[in-house]
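Sorry, any thoughts here?
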Amino acid sequence: MKAILLFTLLFLTGLPVSAQKDELRLPQANIDSMSYVKPTNVSIEHSDYALVAGGSKGIGYGIAEALAKRKFNLILIARHQDALDKAKERLEKDYKVHVELLKLDLEHESTADSIARWCTSKNIHLKMLCNVAGLGGPKDYLSLPLDSLRYMVRLNVESCMALTLTLLPLLEKNKPSYILNVASMAGLAPIPIKNMYSATKSAVIFFSYSLRQQLRKKGISVSCLSPGPVFTKPEIVQYTKKHLGWFGLKMAVPPERVGEIAVRNTLRGKMMIIPGTLAKISSFFIRILPRRWVVALYGTAAD
């Protein structure tokens, strides 16, 4: 069992960079000036929509696809227009739903308010909010500049908090409704080599538990997805094969499967969602062991 824990902890402390520093600063889009075309055969006022922040690829796209299979129309938010366009084309072609695109950087303070105003002005029948956008990688506290660490905190925690708060009136208006926050198994315990990442994901988990209690009488269900390894990039697959061998490959869950599990369990009202049997077992031991033991195991795995 100790070997399994060490393998798990090593994986969670060594994922490759998900965004390079020179990609982190993008101009804020003016959402209020964006063109909007009403879909031909879709009534905006009476169609169920789900908003996926970070929905153009990876886990976010997996969640968007699972929602499209259930005939949710979608609002996808991401920083790169080409990825958004490709996601829209595939989803509309394969599932015959309507997809709106908002090219925005969720780090900016004004973004959440702008999105809420846009949804309200279009009378979007919002039934689900999915806070997926986040930043991680092998470089973390002590190895990243301060502005990058601040960006991680703003994207991983502040954007989730802000977008949730600004869209609560719409979600309550269209109840029963759902909030899905995406954290990570890394948020279940302190990780020395991924100090800030594990701290931000822990904040998302705690925020989700508390918010679920706060909204229990408002007809809004809150869930939190906390996956283990997910192969969203080829370099992650190569890293897993090199460092973890069969255990890492067995533990990993494809992003489309993660999305399906996340959406299915969110609609069922489940709070904590951890895809994969091995991930569930590993997360159980991570949560019950004393924190000082887990920190020591993470430190050992990283050395």
Notes: Strands lie at 48-53, 73-78, 99-103, 125-131, 177-182, 220-225, 272-273. DSSP finds eleven helices and seven strands in the chain. The chain has a mean pLDDT of 83. The radius of gyration is 19 Å.
